[in-house]
Amino acid sequence: MKLIWRKKMKSRKSRFGIPCLMITMILWQGISFNTLAQEGEIESGTVNPKLPKPPRCQLLTANQLFDGVNFPQDNMAVLIEGNKVKRVGSPNQLRGLCRNRIDLGDATILPGFIESHAHISYQNIRKDKLLEHGITTVQDTGGPLMKPEGGQGALRLLSTGPIIQASGGYPLNVFDPDDGIGGYDKIGIAVSSVDEVEGVVQNLADGGATAIKISLEPGGEAGAPWMMSHGDHLIPDAPWPMLSEEIVQAIVAKAHGLDKPLRVIAHVGEQTGFDRALAGGVDELA
């Protein structure tokens, strides 16, 4: 994970306010990360740059700390040895354990944020920008299939690959209406029968997917992003084709039956989408 801090304008309006410095880090024992003080070191793309070796130890102190459970904890310190968090306590408790002390002042130390629903690869979002805003892990839920990457100072990216959808359905009908089939390098991949499911789910798993994403979107929800124009084509009239309950159940069965079982996440819309997701036994709704 990456430790980032940058100066911001000062505010006293609340305990969170806008801190002079922002620090994001993992505070759980055994989770490793590198500490960097420069912005923009991690550029977009799948190849992560070589990162500098961390110092032997660092003792970070700040006005407040949030460990993921308790907030605020005032006047706290974090001891880092190499690239691992070793202890969290008061400055007095940890003072003699490391001479390399960094006083961050009016700041809050907190765990790196996990973004559980984003489209990083499809929308070409710069990874260094996510890190700058405190996001250290992203679940990329719909886009080109990629193996897990990052960590050790780079953005940790977990991919579901393309969204499994019905032929003629969402998301290809909105984002790429000229392509009714899609593929593993697209935002969607269409299936039309139970027989197709096993191969698609297996290929996603073999390609590095950390979960399976499906679409159960009939369209028609006024104001929803998918009902707005994306380019120079019109949004197709609803209702849109959806995966059948039988196909959803087959996707779930295959994903759960893999040597390394995968969760099935469903993009759902309207009551029909929710009902089909529940009947199909999906693990998460998105």
- CATH topology name of the largest domain: TIM Barrel
- Beta strand count: 17
What is the SS-derived class?
alpha/beta
| Shape, per Cα inertia axes | elongated
State which percent range the strand residues make up: 25-35%
Tell me the span between the first and last alpha carbons: 26 Å
- Mean pLDDT comes to 84
How are helices and strands ordered from N to C?
Answer: EEEEEEHEEEHEEEEHEHEHEHE
Gist of the model:
By secondary structure, the chain is of the alpha/beta class. The chain contains 6 helices and 17 strands.
What can you see in these coordinates?
The chain is α/β, with parallel strands linked by helices and 286 residues long. The protein folds into 2 domains: 2-110, Urease, subunit C, domain 1, CATH 2.30.40; 161-285, Metal-dependent hydrolases (TIM Barrel), CATH 3.20.20. Helix content is 18%, strand content 29%. The chain has 6 helices and 17 strands. The protein has helices at residues 91-94, 127-132, 172-175, 194-206, 245-257, 270-280, and strands at 2-3, 21-24, 34-35, 57-65, 73-81, 84-89, 101-103, 107-110, 113-118, 135-140, 149-151, 154-159, 163-166, 188-191, 211-216, 263-268, 284-285. The strands form 5 sheets. Strands 2, 4, 5, 6, 7 and 8 form a 6-stranded mixed beta sheet that branches. It has a 4-stranded mixed beta sheet with strand order 9-10-12-11. Strands 15-16-17 form a 3-stranded parallel beta sheet. Helix 5 links the parallel strand 15 (211-216) and strand 16. Helix 4 (194-206) runs parallel beside helix 5 and helix 5 crosses helix 6. The longest helix is centred in the C-terminal third of the chain and has 13 residues, at 194-206. The two termini are 26 Å apart. The model is unreliable at 1-47 (pLDDT under 50).
